Amino acid sequence: SLVVVFWATAGAYGAKLGSDERELILLVWQVVDLHSKKVALLHKSLVKADNLDLSDQCRELSGLTPEGLDKAEPLDRVLQQFSQLVSSDLKVLGRSSYTLCSDGQLLVRQVLHPETSKKNFLLSDCFYSFYDLRKEFHTCYPSSAAVKDQTIKTMAEYLGLGTDETEEDFGVWQVKTMVAIIFSMLSESCNQIFTEPETVKCKYETGPCSKSETVDSETVIRARGLPWQSSDQDIARFFKGLNIAKGGVALCLNAQGRRNGEALVRFVNSEQRDLALERHKHHMGSRYIEVYKATGEEFLKIAGGTSNEVAQFLSKENQVIIRMRGLPFTATQEDVLGFLGPECPVTGGKEGLLFVKYPDGRPTGDAFVLFSCEEYAQNALKKHKEILGKRYIELFRSTAAEVQQVLNRYMSTPLIPTLPTPIIPVIPPPYTIATGSIRDCVRLRGLPYTAGIDDILEFMGDATADIKPHGVHMVLNQQGRPSGDAFIQMKSADKAFMVAQKCHKKMMKDRYVEVFQCSGEEMNFVLMGGTLNRSGLSPPPCKLPCLSPPAYAAFQTAAVIPAEAALYQPQALLPTTRTPQASAAAPPTVTYYPAQAAQLYMNYTAYYPSPPVSPTTVGYIAAPPGAVAAAAAATATHTPILPQPGALVRMQGLPYNTGMKEILSFFQGYQYAPDDYNGLIQLSDQARSVLQAPKEWVCL
């Protein structure tokens, strides 16, 4: 038997059903016996939603009012009544089992399952399989319209069914017409057999992913804005009703190995992926989640692995993974098992533990643990920040993809303590930021937030040869993230004009990019925090007037950058200060790279780095004091960076939204240092970059 169902929400109708997160307000259904071609009574139930604010489209089509819905039963009781009435109708027809039949996928996948998941309702097994009438109709009548273009009305018109939509109540006409369509499909000329229903996965399955796998890019999305503590199960719950591939949730980590609020999700087919994209800006708790297209290559980069040790660890399926962070470096397997205790036994004992180590075998303080059930995992999480040895241990939910990411990162990153010796000084090549009025620069606006230097150079095409060395500059927002803007210094104003004409509104990934010609002065203002709009230039935010753009310390001699240098994370680089009167005499900043450099690494980052305010700044390894003195004696005499010891202070624990004004206000009333050493240094955890700022910002 089939139970033909039609449901409506308080919001959008048709192709956008469920895309606005609105609740169910109407259920209409009728039981159909396929063998005897008999039908039971038609039932219609109103549902009292938590939010009774109906959309204009809903009011017009359904004729329902908030006053009428206020007297209805809530969804959980209506679903109970649904099950009871269907059971009684089946007894009348002499049947015992049934399957739902709906008009398309949206009713079940995008409306029912997401709403019941948010309200913590447990659905019976009958709601995890259904027939899609549109697909069945297209199978029976291949010459009809494509599945995505089908509606109840078009299917009825194709069969020549003379039903008048205005004669019946909203929902009743839809169910009666669907039943008539089914009977037509059961006729001798068609003899359609309903044998392969659509299924909804009731549980997300974990599992490993190998880099050798082939992942279809049409099945992957990127979710952004996730709570940092969310797990793969939380993400699967957000996409409830859609079928995620086994091991298809990969949480992304930042440079410090912590979750960055993004995840890549792989679905079983492109149809499920397209439905997932309709959940853009749906809510997980109080946060809205952005959903975008992604590629299979991006998914494999995050979730794929090649380590046999990891593959063996993750071979035990349907296990709950917990990550332990902050373990003593001397901790053993017995210590970890003793810390967890008998109330949360580890799957396989010692085999259920995976310690994360550096390439030389030293422990990192991280480990992953497998538990066979949710209860044991919950008991383990209760030990969050308990003491092992002399350290408190952090415990978090984890995923198979996170295991792969952490192991890949630690096993592939060179370590400074294991660098070959000796080390030699290398002076980076000179670069300057133009400040003149010549319009030899271009501004790129509307870049994808994931775009990097390589993407920009590919976007520029043949014009890349006309870029000045170190002439690509990314612009960050106040949170330190890419703003979608970039500036490029060209070799001449004519070259800048040609690039602006050729590349304006050219596509980069999924977005078109605007390209405008501008001057070095305009570029400098924006890089230092100002704005450039139709009204002209607005200087960087500052408490004091007369702001002038700062100048960067220029390096005097060029040098070769070895291959190893491109692999290291940026360290703090402190350029010597310079004043407008003595800029030409600024001494070189000594930086160091490993001595073992047999071949050159010709990467774009080395030749076109952004200024120190950019996330793509070339990293430098700070030299030991003795080496600095030796290099200084061999090259030039250095001027002291600070006038006296202790003149520079470092601030830790600043709120993330702290600006220049708050820091100035914090130091109000203190004695400022001499003018030649005015400056503000801002440090970030990921890349400690030093920005020599204008004198008017702060005096230390």
Automatic annotation (TrEMBL):
Keywords: mRNA processing, mRNA splicing, Nucleus, Repeat, RNA-binding. One of its GO terms (biological process) is mRNA processing. The keyword RNA-binding applies. GO terms for cellular component: nucleus. Signal peptide: none annotated. GO terms for molecular function: RNA binding. Its main location: nucleus. Residues 219-296, 320-400 form the RRM domain. CDD domains: RRM2_ESRP2 (cd12740), RRM3_ESRP1_ESRP2 (cd12742). It is found in: Nucleus. PROSITE patterns: RRM (PS50102). InterPro entries: ESRP (IPR050666), Nucleotide-bd_a/b_plait_sf (IPR012677), RBD_domain_sf (IPR035979), RNaseH-like_sf (IPR012337), RNaseH_sf (IPR036397), RRM_dom (IPR000504). The keyword RNA-binding applies. It comes from the Eukaryota. Belongs to the ESRP family. This is Epithelial splicing regulatory protein 2.
